């Protein structure tokens, strides 16, 4: 094509009168927010389930197998207090896992990740205090829901192994939507999504 144009004394550059120059106009803070929005919901969902899973199984099916649950139920404390104590124990383990891993991730992204990727050295990877408080509140509510479901499911099992089989599908029921959110981001503008107990955590 270029040779034919030269034979006819035409400039090949005339075929492209307009040059398209693509530039990212997002600020470094916006790029950092996009990065965190893509990974934090997934890790919060995964760790909220995994962090309290073994504790819920041990406090419910484990005590039933060891025979300590019956003696605990005939003890002076009310059953509501016993259930609340077990729930808070599972919730503490779940939130502990979420907080530790999220903090480790933030530290590694801020100080370790830029040394691995040159383009990340200019990113301002940080969470403003207000957003951090909101994120912590959302994680707490989500972990409370997951902890209650895990404890309720585990109490019906006769052994920890059976309880593990009951609780494991819950992991996939929560993690798979967290992965799918990356491909259905157009639903974020619809109000009914925020009414769903699990999906509203990821949007």
Summary tags:
203 residues; 67% helix; membrane; transmembrane; ABC transporter permease
Summarize the structure.
The chain is mainly α and 203 residues long. It has six helices and no strands.
SSE topology sketch:
Elements: H1 2-7, H2 28-66, H3 68-73, H4 79-116, H5 129-154, H6 160-180
Describe what you observe in this structure.
By secondary structure, the chain is mainly alpha-helical. The chain has one domain (41-181, 193-201). It is 67% helix and 0% strand. Helix 2 (28-66) packs antiparallel against helix 4 (79-116), helix 2 (28-66) packs parallel to helix 5 and helix 2 (28-66) packs antiparallel against helix 6 (160-180).
Topology as H/E string?
HHHHHH
Question: Number of helical segments?
Answer: 6
Give start-end ranges of low-pLDDT stretches: none
- Give the CA-based shape: elongated
Mean pLDDT across the residues is: 78
How many extended strands? 0
Distance between the termini: 50 Å
Using only C-alpha atoms, the radius of gyration works out to 26 Å
Helix content: 55-70%
How large a portion of the residues is in β-strands, by DSSP E?
under 5%
Q: What summary fits the major beta sheet?
A: none
Global structural class = mainly alpha
**Please, how many domains?**
1
Transmembrane segments: 34-57, 87-111, 131-157, 169-193
Keywords: Membrane, Transmembrane, Transmembrane helix
Protein name: ABC transporter permease
GO molecular function, one term: ABC-type transporter activity
């Amino acid at each position: 094509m270029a040779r034919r144009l030269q034979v006819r004394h035409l400039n090949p550059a005339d075929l492209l009168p307009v040059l398209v120059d693509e530039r990212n106009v997002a600020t470094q803070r916006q790029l950092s927010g996009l990065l965190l929005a893509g990974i934090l919901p997934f890790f919060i969902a995964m760790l909220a389930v995994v962090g309290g899973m073994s504790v819920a199984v041990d406090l419910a099916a484990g005590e039933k197998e060891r025979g300590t649950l019956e003696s605990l139920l005939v003890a002076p404390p009310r059953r509501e207090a016993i259930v609340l104590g077990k729930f808070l124990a599972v919730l503490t383990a779940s939130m502990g896992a979420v907080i530790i891993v999220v903090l480790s991730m933030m530290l590694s992204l801020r100080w370790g990740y830029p040394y691995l990727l040159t383009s990340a050295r200019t990113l301002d990877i940080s969470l403003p205090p207000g957003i951090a408080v909101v994120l912590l509140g959302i994680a707490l509510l989500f972990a409370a829901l997951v902890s209650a479901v895990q404890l309720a499911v585990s109490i019906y099992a006769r052994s920890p192994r059976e309880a593990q089989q009951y609780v494991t599908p819950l992991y996939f029921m929560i993690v798979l939507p967290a992965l799918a959110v990356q491909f259905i981001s157009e639903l974020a503008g619809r109000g009914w999504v925020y009414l769903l107990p699990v999906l509203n955590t990821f949007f």
